[in-house]
Design a protein that fits this description.
α1 packs across α2 and α3 packs antiparallel against α4. The longest helix is centred in the N-terminal third of the chain and has 40 residues. Helices cover 31% and strands 33% of the residues.
Length: 239
């Protein structure tokens, strides 16, 4: 190894010790230029009566070549990462004003507004939607009745169990399904809405539907507002 050779070669040991000591005390990492500097220093300070063996020198050059390739790989990976980040940001801007369907169970209620949710049930059964506020307290339960397996949507008018308007803010929903043989099942929840803003801060951009953040990885579908393909929402009944 180059470092071992520098440490043991008579003339170069002091130079190597000083150089390595400087880096260790300063908390620096050896780069390709430092590696080559040490190699040249070793050649300049080798003992003429005990020169570096050709095989050992060839091995050190091969080691440097491998190090150079590793640096090039790291640089290429960094360029790819930067390009991917830029592409993700440009892609996120393209979502503005579009209707998206995404993984999640959170929606943002505006004053007097209506919210829609989606879910996928693997089996049929009696379905109930529970709306909760930001503290986890139940606000409303909607009975959707007996539904078959598949994708379903529901609509919440923003009222609580007493029939009063709920305060604007963030709400979540959960789905419970009771099969014909009495088993309790969960469902895969999804949200939908129009992207109103994009946050470019942080490592990855975030889409916002109202006040609800959505990562690009959560998006399942995107549509132009007013396009065909929307599904009628299930009208839930209160318990």
């Amino acid at each position: 190894m180059l470092f071992d050779s520098l440490a043991t070669n008579n003339g170069a040991s002091a130079s190597f010790g000083e150089t390595l000591g400087d880096y260790s005390t300063q908390g620096k990492k050896l780069g390709r230029d430092d590696f080559m500097t040490l190699l040249i220093t070793q050649l300049k300070n080798q003992d003429p009566l005990n020169p570096l063996e050709s095989d050992e020198f060839a091995a050190q050059l091969a080691q440097f070549s491998s190090l150079e390739q590793l640096f090039n790989v790291n640089e290429n990976l960094e360029v790819m990462r930067v390009n991917q980040d830029q592409n993700a940001r440009l892609q996120a801007l393209g979502f503005l004003g579009k209707e998206v369907i995404a993984e999640g169970d959170t929606f943002s209620l505006e004053e007097g507004g209506i919210q829609k949710g989606r879910f996928i049930s693997r089996e049929g059964g009696q379905c109930t939607v529970t709306i909760r506020d930001s503290n986890g307290n139940p606000v409303r339960r909607l009975l959707l009745g007996s539904l078959q397996a598949g994708t379903h949507t529901f609509q919440w008018d923003g009222r609580n169990e007493s029939g009063d308007w709920s305060d604007p803010g963030i709400y979540t929903f959960e789905i419970s399904i009771v099969t014909g043989d009495g088993r309790m099942l969960d469902a895969e929840t999804q949200i939908s809405g129009r992207v109103t803003s994009v946050n470019m801060e942080g490592d990855s951009p975030l889409l916002y539907v109202g006040d609800v953040p959505i990562a690009l990885s959560q998006v399942l579908d995107i549509r132009i507002p007013g396009s065909t393909g929307s599904e009628p929402a299930q009208e839930g009944q209160d318990e």
